[in-house]
Amino acid sequence: MALLSNPKLDAVAKNSIWEEHVRKENKTISLGETFSISDPRKMDILPEKPNRTVPAPQPDPKDVASASALLHELSSLKDTDKMPHERFALPVTGNMEYGFFSTRPLVPTNPMFDYKTRSCDVTNFATVFVNSIGHSPFARTDGPTSK
């Protein structure tokens, strides 16, 4: 290819040299036209389409109700709103023993970090205003959601 960079050659000569090079290269190139798999056991299998469904028989409502009851019985989330002494008969862990049987907190809440929901004059006025006119001033009066 160093011959193509020769400054004495004109464009036609460079093009004919390149054409000869491409012809020689095309003679030696042979594409594999037959397809074969060496070992079909090693072939990659494509997975099923993600939206393919196989219809399954519907369980009867009695089985569904019994399974739901069992799940609710075994669930650890069913009593999350209860205090520990209401959930368990005895302390489960060693840390639970401290204050387990007391019904009020052992340490009073710190007012510095305890932010109760309080109303100010503006929110009190807005509540009274909405109650007096019967609906929010921001509610749509026309449309599908209006009464």
From TrEMBL:
Q: Which GO CC terms are listed, alphabetically?
A: ciliary base; cytoskeleton
Protein name, please?
Uncharacterized protein
Which residue ranges have biased composition labelled Basic and acidic residues? 40-51
Q: Which family does it belong to?
A: Belongs to the CFAP144 family.
> Any idea where this protein resides?
Cell projection, Cilium; Cytoplasm, Cytoskeleton
Alphabetic keyword roster: Cell projection, Cytoplasm, Cytoskeleton
Q: Which InterPro entries match?
A: CFAP144
* Domain of life from the UniProt record: Eukaryota
Claim: Metal-binding is one of the keywords in the record: no
One Pfam family of this protein, by short name?
Answer: FAM183
Ranges for region Disordered: 40-65
